[in-house]
Amino acid sequence: MKHFLGERAAGIAPYVAGEQPADRRYVKLNTNENPYPPSPEAVKALRGFAAETLNRYPQPCSDRLREAIARAEGVAPENVFCSNGSDETLFLCFAAFFDRTAPVCFAELTYSFYAVYAAFFGVESVTVPLCEGYRIDLDAMRNTPCKGYFIANPNAPTGVGIPRAAFEQFLKAVPDRLVIADEAYMDFYGESLASVAAKYDNLLVVKTFSKSYSLAGIRCGYALGSSALIEGLNRVKDCMNSYPVDSVCAAVCAAAIADGAYREKTARQVCGERDRVRAELLKLGFTVPESGANFLFAGKGKIAGGALYARLKENGVLVRHWDTPALCDFCRITVGTPTENDFLLKTIKTILG
Ligand code: PMP
Q1: Considering only CA atoms, which residue is closest to atom 1 of ligand 1?
Q2: Which atom of ligand 1 is closest in space to residue 17's alpha carbon?
Q3: What's the pLDDT tens digit per position in 55-95?
Q4: 346 C-alpha to center of ligand 1: Å?
Q5: Which of 19-28's residues contact partners 24+ apart within 8 Å by CB, and which partners?
Q6: Ligand 1: residue whose CA is nearest its atom 2
Q7: Residue 127: enclosing H or E segment and its boundaries?
Q8: Which whole number is the average pLDDT over 9-35?
């Protein structure tokens, strides 16, 4: 049989998304979703959506949603770009700003999609090992020749955050390099650069509705930056999909972002539980870096990472494990509701005997 796969698709190792199994009900702590439902305002917007208007295309640049985001983030609408999930924004950042002429730099242990995108676009990637405390080594990154950086803050899968002052110092030290700050988990940390994104020529802040807004199912993300950078993203968007954000999604996300009080309340609950679960895991002998995200990176305990993952799954708890040399000792555990977290901890205690 003839194989039609192109050279690029054939040669790449795609990103592997977390399991979404349908075989049974799990306490699902494997994909960093928010355990709470979306804002009642978002639910109301969905219920009230005028479905009969779906014969029309949505706004190409999601103007109403951009205005709602701009209002919430304290920037101007021309500093906002919207997409179908922040993964899409990250993909478009590669398409717009990186090519074969200069490398991109990111941490050795970080969101694994960066390496996939770099490979997809044929961009050379240079990785920098984490330093003590699983921190991203900004000094080493600064001294690494490259066109720009992808920095998840807080980082995934470690959860370790970079304080705003240190991040700004880094930005000022690399004025001729583009810094993509992936703030997917920032609302659980509170050191965002969103409101100053447009003041730096070399900064794009990428955010998502999937985590703190409890809207992973709707697929929406956005970037904040100078109008020149936003223009760059629009150029490549219009080479790919003129209408990436559908009308239903735009209406729901605009309502969600306007309800900042609900996001803050649920994020506070998640952070409280995160710190409680971390303290319990430390007591059980696990190494768990302090997390600024809605998940914990737990490992090097009395049980190997792969075995813990498998035993938890048998007992109805799903966490994330990667069978690679750097990660195999660890599991990444999303913070759930208090009941889910209690069940997780009870199950781990039983497994450890
Ligand atoms: N960045 C990081 C660091 C993530 O962990 C994720 C979620 N997998 C994303 C971006 C993408 O999120 P989404 O596409 O749901 O907006």
Answers
A1: 184
A2: 8
A3: 999 999 999 999 999 999 999 999 999 999 999 999 999 99
A4: 29
A5: 19/318, 21/318, 24/316, 25/316, 26/313, 26/316, 26/317, 26/318, 27/316, 27/317, 27/318, 27/336, 27/340, 27/343, 27/344, 28/318, 28/334, 28/336
A6: 184
A7: strand 125-128
A8: 92
CA of 4 to the centre of ligand 1 (A): 30
Question: Within 13 Å, how many C-alpha atoms sit on residue 73's CB side?
Answer: 33
pLDDT digits (tens, 9 = 90+) for 138-197: 999 999 999 999 999 999 999 999 999 999 999 999 999 999 999 999 999 999 999 999
Buried b (16+ CB within 10 A) or exposed e, 87-114: bbbbbbbbbbbbeeeebbbbbebbbebb
Contact partners, residue 55, CB within 8 Å, separation at least 6: none
Q: Which residues contact 322 (CB under 8 A, 6 or more apart)?
A: 157, 328
Tell me how far apart the alpha carbons of residues 353 and 344 are, in angstroms, rounded to a whole number.
Answer: 14
Pair 334, 33: CB distance under 8 Å: yes
Parallel/antiparallel/unpaired status of strands 178-182 and 148-152: parallel
- Write phi, then psi, for 179 (nearest 5 degrees): -110, 115
Helix axes 305-314, 338-352, angle to 10 degrees: 120
Query: Quick check: 232 and 220 in contact, CB under 8 A?
Result: no
pLDDT score, position 1: 63
Main-chain phi, psi angles of 154, to 5 degrees? -60, 155
Give the C-alpha distances (Å, rounded to integers) separating 137 from 17, 103, 347. 26, 18, 35
Residues within 6 Å of ligand 1 by CB: 85-87, 111, 152, 156, 182, 184, 208, 210, 216, 221
- Return the DSSP state at 17: P
Look up the pTM and report it.
Answer: 0.97
Q: What's the angle, vertex CA 90, arms to CA 84 and CA 93, rounded to 5?
A: 115
Which of 257, 256, 196 shows the shortest CA–CA distance to 225? 196
